[in-house]
Specification:
The chain has one domain: UDP N-Acetylglucosamine Acyltransferase, domain 1 (3 Solenoid). It is about 35% helix and about 15% strand. The strands form three sheets. The protein has a six-stranded mixed beta sheet. Strands 1-4-7-10-13 form a five-stranded parallel beta sheet. A four-stranded parallel beta sheet has the order 2-5-8-11, with no helix packed on it. Helix 3 packs antiparallel against helix 4. This is Serine acetyltransferase. It is an enzyme of class 2 (transferase).
Length: about 220
């Protein structure tokens, strides 16, 4: 019969993690989280001329609050057995910020929602890096089937207030979508989509894509 010595750790079925290793892992996680928060803050300050400091943005931006809560709820959504808490957390965020992001949605880095109120992002939506949405934007679905039914948005895309992007459409990189537009078809990289239903045009050589949005004043009415 084996005798367990007092100096030996009892068998656990897996290698014990040294306390110092756990501490380093926790510190690395905190540093990564703070780096992500600081990146979000710097992006938001750069895109909102009405705010001057990180502190003001951190305290007074519902769009940023919604993004931060989504990052937590999305991680919960990916864990078996944690989907209900993830949904409940997202609903709390919706009630507080007016922004509804399903915890299953995939959101890239440096994402910013200006004003925030009324934004809806569906479960299978995918959003790239450096994307900016204004209030009232919907990234919605057109199917009741459990399939990929929400938009895929590329990098450096701007979507104006009240725009609706519906279905599993693909929005290319550097696209600008005008306010109140309804997009139900793919938009190629670099395009400017405006109108109901949206039509696509491309900026003239040398024209700033953001300035191209103002070429159609009717879309702002």
């Amino acid at each position: 019969m084996a005798v367990l010595r007092l100096t030996e750790a009892p068998p656990t079925g897996r290698a014990a993690i040294p306390p110092n290793a756990r501490g380093r892992s926790a510190l690395a996680t905190l540093r990564s989280a703070w780096g992500s928060v600081r990146e979000d803050l710097d992006t938001a300050v750069a895109r909102d001329p009405a705010v001057d400091t990180r502190l003001e943005m951190a305290l007074a931006s519902p769009g940023l609050h919604a993004i931060w809560v989504h990052r937590v709820s999305h991680r919960l959504w990916q864990r078996p057995g944690w989907r209900l808490p993830a949904r409940l957390l997202s609903q709390v965020s919706r009630a507080v910020t007016g922004v509804e992001i399903h915890p299953g949605a995939r959101i890239g880095r440096r994402f910013f929602i200006d004003h925030g109120m009324g934004v809806v992002i569906g479960e299978t939506a995918e959003v790239g890096d450096d994307v900016m949405l204004y209030h009232g934007v919907t990234l919605g679905g057109r199917s009741l089937q459990k399939v990929k039914r929400h938009p895929t948005v590329g990098d450096r895309v701007t979507i104006g207030a009240g725009a609706r992007v519906l279905g599993p459409v693909v929005i290319g990189d550097d696209v600008q979508i005008g306010a109140n537009s309804v997009v139900v078809k793919d938009v190629p990289t670099g395009g400017v989509a405006t109108g109901v239903p949206a039509t696509v045009r491309f900026p003239e050589p040398g024209q700033d894509p953001r300035e191209a949005l103002f070429a159609d004043p009717a879309l702002w009415i």
